[in-house]
Design a protein that fits this description.
Length: about 170
């Protein structure tokens, strides 16, 4: 196990967010190398959050290539929350890790003395607990130009057609 304390860089965060927003693939600098002696300074938390992440299969003691972990780490970086990164070799899972994560999955974060798995749940809880800056999509931006409504209209029309002319099973 390796522990890394990370301090976000505004330039790095901005580049990462722009890359992901543009649909690109985020490539961590130098195979995921983070400075080991930096600590996030933030008044939101008195102590660092513990985060378990996949260790690289190629280079030991480096961040692995898990996009779910990257999503959680980007959220922590953008919200400027301090965290201690614990790298876990998923090919040889340590006993302490299986104790806190019986399924042996990453990412995993400790919030309020509870270990939380699943990146969707983690990001949602971070958004609720630390709302500033808001990272959730604003409700007015969720539907782009009514495309959701157009799809719903098409599916409703198709469902009505099947109800009147169906069922279509085995070509009948």
């Amino acid at each position: 196990m390796s522990t890394v304390t990370v301090k976000p860089s505004a330039v790095a965060i901005s580049a990462a967010v722009k890359c992901i927003s543009a649909g690109g693939i985020l490539r961590m600098p130098k195979m995921g190398v983070f400075p080991r002696s930096l600590r996030v300074m933030c008044s939101k938390l008195s102590e660092s959050l513990e985060v378990c992440a996949k260790e690289s299969v190629i280079v030991p003691n480096k961040l692995g290539d898990c996009p779910f972990t990257q999503r959680v780490l980007l959220t922590l970086e953008e919200k400027q929350l301090p965290y201690d990164l614990k790298l876990v070799d998923l090919r040889n899972k340590p006993e302490w890790f299986l104790t806190i994560s019986p399924e042996g999955k990453v990412p995993l974060i400790k919030l309020d003395d509870n270990w939380i798995p699943d990146s969707d749940v983690i990001v949602q809880l971070l958004e609720e607990k630390f709302p500033e800056p808001p990272l959730a999509t604003p409700p007015e931006k969720v539907s782009v130009d009514g495309t959701d409504q157009a799809l719903l209209n098409e599916l409703t029309a198709f469902n009505d057609y099947l109800a009147q002319n169906g069922p279509f099973i085995n070509g009948k």
